[in-house]
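Suppose you are handed only these lines of text.
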Amino acid sequence: DMLQAYLTSQKIYQNLKDIYEKDDLNDPRVKVFCQPVWNTKTGVFSTAEALMRLEIPEVGLVFPDQFIPMAERYDFIHTLSKIILNKTCQNIKQMEAEGYVIDRVSINFSVQELHMDCFCEDIITIIKDNGIPFHKIAIELTETRNEKDFLSMKAVIEHLQDLNIKFYLDDFGTGYSNFERIIGLPIDIIKFDRSLTILASKNDESKFMVGSFSEIFKKADYQILFEGVEDEHDELQCIDMNAQYLQGYKYSKPIPIDQLKGFLTKAS
Ligand code: C2E
Ligand code: CA
Ligand code: CA
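From them, the structure of the protein bound to calcium ion can be written out as follows.
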């Protein structure tokens, strides 16, 4: 009921505030889940997306829709991102030490973080301190309508790109995606939102439209990832539309990152 929902959101807020104030890169309440990504060209899983969860006493596992908007509103989000980045680096290092092949893990950042003066430095410091190569981490960003956001996004990408960090444009097809702007950004991978995967199944006209977007990006040398691939029909259709990477429940739901090993190949 409403009172219960209110008390839960109070607890979430208190914990977010406490995580922010402690600023501990190993805070145990912040959990890294991830989804393995299928490479259609190599036929293996060698990349993944990190997805944040909170584990809060008396509340349990909390999903992004219940805390990301709040963390953004009160400016706690960058602290959470740093923790996810740190823990992801630790996991990559551990998996590689055990012989697993992992090309990179992509991490979601919120657009407001890009305006922080410390953003690039924080990323660089955390990756360096963990002793993994920069190219093992990728950054997922979502486009917004705002010109100021776009300029910050461009500046950050240009700054970090020299280190071989890859950039993914998240949620293409929702909102205000603007070809002219995107083509001007040095992005590596375009993530087609699940709504486009669904749209392409609707009828021939829709499929033609989504397929045409994918052709344009392919010609402009971007790699394409389709999100929300749930069954074989989706898979075949996306492969038909120039998919280099596929992600969705067909392969795996989000899992704790230590379970990613079950999807990776081992170096021989
Ligand atoms: P997103 O970046 O678009 O992440 C993909 C979401 O789609 C995930 O939800 C994932 O569980 C879900 N999904 C994956 N495959 C399928 C599928 O086949 N079918 C359906 N119906 N859904 C699928 P999740 O984990 O709840 O994350 C939701 C959103 O929360 C993310 O959307 C992202 O915007 C945000 N988020 C997650 N982790 C972080 C983070 O560390 N930092 C920030 N800033 N945002 C995050
Ligand atoms: Ca994402
Ligand atoms: Ca997405």
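What can we learn from it? The CA atoms of residues 113 and 119 lie 7 Å apart. The mean pLDDT is 95.
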